[in-house]
Amino acid sequence: MLIVRSTRLVLPHGVRPATLQIENGVVQRIGEYPGEDPAGADVFNAGDLVVSPGLIDTHVHINEPGRTAWEGFDSATRAAAAGGVTTLVDMPLNSVPATTTAAAYQAKIDVARAQCHVDVGFWGGIVPGNVGDLDALVDAGVLGFKCFLVPSGVDEFPAVSEAALRRAMPLLARRAVPLLVHAEDPARIVNPVYPAEGPGANPQPYGPFLASRPVAAEVEAVRMMIRLSAATRARTHIVHVSSAEAVDLIEAAKADHVPISAETCPHYLTFAAEEIPSGATEFKCAPPIRETSHRCALWRGLASGALDLVVTDHSPAPPPLKTPGDFARAWGGIASLELSLAAVATGLRAQRSTRGSSASSLESSELMQLAQWMSAAPAALAGLGARKGRIAPGMDADLTVWDPAASFVVDPLRLQQRHKLTPYAGRSLSGTVLTTFVRGERVWDRNRLVQAYGGQLL
Amino acid sequence: MRTLIKNGTIVTAVDQYSGDVLIEDEKISVIGVRLDIVADKVIDAAGKYVLPGGIDVHTHMDMPFGGSTSADDFETGTRAAAFGGTTTIVDFAIQYRGQTLHHAMETWARKAESKAVIDYGFHMIITELTDQVEGEMDALVKQGITSFKLFMAYPGVFMLDDASIFKALLRTGKNGGTICMHAENGGVIDVLVQRALAEGKTAPKYHALTRPARAEAEATHRAIALAEIADVPVYIVHLSAAEALEMVTEARDRGLPAHAETCPQYLFLSYDNYEEPDFAGAKYVMSPPLRDRAKQNQLWRGLASNDLQVISTDHCPFCMKEQKELGRDDFSKIPNGAPGVETRMSLVYDGGVRPGRISLNRFVELTSTSPAKIFGMFPRKGTIAPGSDADIVIFDPNRTITLAAKTLHMNVDYNPYEGRQVTGATDTVLSRGRLVIENGVFVGRPGSGSFLKRAGRS
Questions:
Q1: Comparing C-alpha atoms, which of A388, A411, A408 is closest to residue A400?
Q2: Is A31's CB within 8 Å of B386's CB?
Q3: Alpha-carbon Rg of chain A, whole angstroms?
Q4: Res. A358: pLDDT tops 70
Q5: Dihedral (C-alpha) B294, B298, B301, B303: value to the nearest 10 degrees?
Q6: Helices (H), strands (E): how many in chain A?
């Protein structure tokens, strides 16, 4: 039996002093603070540290098998544990084979098993020609599907057409699994024009890349998905929303009862195009990080409920593929699994400073928002809400123990992810994860992995 | 004293799980999957919902009005509330012109103190705002009366002019109180009433026909505008008209802290009831009046979308005999009000949750959690969590009852829902750990309910 007590336990109905009693990996009791310690119990006194529900990250590219040199289950789940992430859901692409058939799914879980330090689930993929495989993928255990409307960056995971989605989505509605969509319209994407020589040739400025993937591309694609979702009633989730206009469209669709949800990512909430130096390809991702006005709109979208959740789109690649200085050729993707809680908590506090409050720790309402955006809502998206995402009796004891007021400077060499390149390097963030529990087992504690390979496949 | 509620399905605004609840004295001390704890009393809730007790923030017990007094006093009224699954009421104390708020508070405290069987708080109705009364508002907030109701209707009796309303709103910006508004344009309504009577239109239905929806919408809009200028929240009581809801929705879309409640009568009864033969329409004479059935769906949508945050009752019963009869020849002399404190939970469960208009969690939120939060009672009231008051309802979702004045417990000779069958009924009720209703039998004690000091906005 494990006892966890804190004066700031983030429960579904509020942040309160409380004591958890955990058995067999499940929260059995929630009692008043401090309460008593049953004989023989393992006791974890968190004191005034915050105990939040473990983070659920439903947007992670683990890239194994096939591109294990890019990341892999061991390193990704280690980074997750370090960042307080207790469950992640792997994307179907960048691994080879891509998770677009039941056989590919089987190949993936075969390599994943026995390598994971936190719990891991899987999305399947929709690509041209695999509608016939979707039922078997659901039967095999995928939690839902991801598709691209633009080229994904890897040849084995092509984009799908509207016609293909019209065939696939009724099936997804029938199976009650969500469709996750990378929403950019290829017809609106243009070739970036960089100066051939002279200023701007090397290193390349960020502007041309940004202009090549305009807001209009996101808007057109989101419009199409709203249409399809309304017509088919398939639960549709727009991944990595980057623009104010997309937020507005999604908000309006929700008001019309379209079954749609949406996420954004820590980098869109942290950075702004104006601040990206020339040649800094570590900031390259798609859709691109946009201007400050969009960043503000994303925060407003989270506050209003237009956006449901924050997940990382953790997408690492070996540094040579990020071709420093060269936006045209660099791999697009940012890896931030381990920094997401700190980045979002820091951003949330910065939002507040515009409202005039300056307390260094987070208020209860802000801790509740973080738990909603980063635990409860992603758990619900992945259909895991009956087991994960909240601290309540009968739920898995997935817990993140952290200090919202403790700041640190991001040192890339100390990150657990395989490749250390990160746009957060040197940045000061507030929100330090101290201990991570997965189903009642202490997995991460004070800067090190203390229990390896205990993760389950979901 | 330890009470253990076993085997139930615990439902809060954000949770639903099978589990047990341990109560020690007046508080909930532990929630858990299965509690093997010795208790003085064990309640088996198998097959039942275990809900946070209902909170009705709009009742008028023992209230003088139009030459009569509402038929329930604090004993009969709170007993009926308990039978219906409500464990807290917030009633209205009235400052009459020329009197102090303090006098009103004392008067209503005396009405309640030896009679109430459940906990109660007070809003303060202000009918005259002098400099001295403004000062008294601050004192009342400190004493736990943290909300003030103002009238935009009933000229010469209750109505305040816009300047006084605005001053009161400004005052709450400083003292942390909340203004509740009866939003109907009283001046316009009085003209319409006089004109109707002059034309010989005296039947009950003219009560509704002289109080148009637009008069409510106009006042609602004005109340919100004044609150916006004063930069404070406002709470619209008993919103009945879809046109008024549009005003609230528009304001909330702009991010304003405009709150509103509606009542079961506006969801389940309609203008058609005024057309009942003889004098039966008088049963439904209340302000605002019942509205078009066709527009009720908009109220349901507002409840689902959180444009309406609370369902209260505006319980204000008058008997047909000797009370409603006062207006047999003149609808304007019919005492305004109807009974409802006992029937709220069953009606909303049966008509809201069962047909899928609102979720079970939303039902709890609308009838308990949200009023607790808006009116400074959360987390002491409004949820099931360690440390919260043990105000708990064991609710049978499958038991069908027939609503009838004879079998209900309100002290009034008719029921507006006479003969209506509803599924979902209260079995057992605890108020701060004490049994008040046990399997449908009253086991409480007058005077055991306490005055509830509520918190202001911080």
A1: A388
A2: yes
A3: 21
A4: no
A5: -110
A6: 12, 17
A6 beta partners: A18, A47
Helix, strand or coil, per DSSP, at residue A50: strand
What region, left, alpha or beta, does residue A383 occupy, with left being phi > 0 and alpha being psi -120 to 50 degrees?
left
Contact in structure between B350 and B401 (CB atoms under 8 Å): no
Answer whether residue B358 shows pLDDT above 60.
yes
CA-nearest residue to A12 within chain B is: B14
A16, A30, A251, best to mutate vs chain B, most B CBs in 10 Å: A30
Of A12, A29, A33, the CB nearest to B12: A12
- Structure confidence by residue, pLDDT tens digits, A294-340: 999 999 999 999 999 999 999 999 999 998 889 999 999 999 999 99
Question: Residue B384's closest chain A neighbor by CA?
Answer: A13
| Residue bearing tokens 């605005």 | B166
User: Do the strands B64-65 and B68-69 form a parallel or antiparallel pair, or are they unpaired?
Assistant: antiparallel
| Contact residues of B toward A, CB < 8 A | 10, 12-15, 17-19, 27, 29-35, 255, 305, 369, 378-379, 383, 385-387
The answer to whether the Cβ–Cβ distance between A16 and B13 falls below 8 Å is no
ipTM summary value: 0.82
Q: What is chain B's Cα-based Rg?
A: 21
Task: Tell me the chain B residues in contact with residue A12 when contact means C-beta distances shorter than 8 Å.
Answer: 12, 14-15
SS3 for A10?
A: strand
Q: B210's torsion region: left (phi>0), alpha (psi -120 to 50) or beta?
A: alpha
Cα–Cα separations (whole angstroms), residue A120 to A15, A87, A109, A142, A436:
27, 6, 10, 11, 15
Q: What digits encode the pLDDT tens for the residues A197-250?
A: 776 778 899 999 999 999 999 999 999 999 999 999 999 999 999 999 999 999
Specify the residue for token string 């319409």. Answer: B192
CA distance A40 to chain B (A): 17
Q: Determine how β-strand B434-438 pairs with β-strand A309-310.
A: unpaired
With contact defined as beta carbons under 8 Å apart, do A181 and A149 qualify? Answer: yes
Say yes or no for a CB contact (<8 Å) between A394 and B19.
yes
Query: Rounded distance, CA B36 to CA B17, Å?
Result: 17
Say how many CA atoms lie within 13 Å of A297 toward its Cβ. Answer: 18
Nearest CA distance, A26 vs chain B (angstrom): 9
Q: In the 8-state DSSP scheme, what is residue B351?
A: I
SS (H, E, C) A199-268: CCCCCCCCHHHHHHCCHHHHHHHHHHHHHHHHHHCCCEEECCCCCHHHHHHHHHHHHCCCCEEEEECHHH
Selecting from A12, A30, A255 the residue whose C-beta is nearest the C-beta of B14 gives A12
Which pLDDT band holds residue A360 (cuts at 50, 70, 90)? low
* Mutation site for A-interface testing, chosen from B11, B17, B25, B384 by largest number of A Cβ within 10 Å: B17
For A44, residues 6+ apart whose C-beta sits below 8 A from its C-beta are A2, A3, A4, A5, A401, A435, A442
Distance from the Cα of A108 to chain B's closest Cα (Å) equals: 34
Option in A32, A304, A395 nearest B386 (CB): A32
Q: Which residues of B touch A395 (CB under 8 A)?
A: 17
Q: Select the residue of B13, B19, B378 nearest A393 (Cβ to Cβ).
A: B19
Is A394 in contact with B15 (Cβ distance < 8 A)?
no
Q: What are phi and psi of B333, to 5 degrees?
A: -100, 0
Instruction: Give tens-digit pLDDT for B191-246.
Output: 999 999 999 999 999 999 999 999 999 999 999 999 999 999 999 999 999 999 99
Tokens linked to B340 = 């409802």
CB atoms within 10 A of CB B170: 17
Is residue B90 classed as helix, strand or coil in its secondary structure?
Answer: strand
In the numeric block, which tokens belong to residue A437? Answer: 């529990």
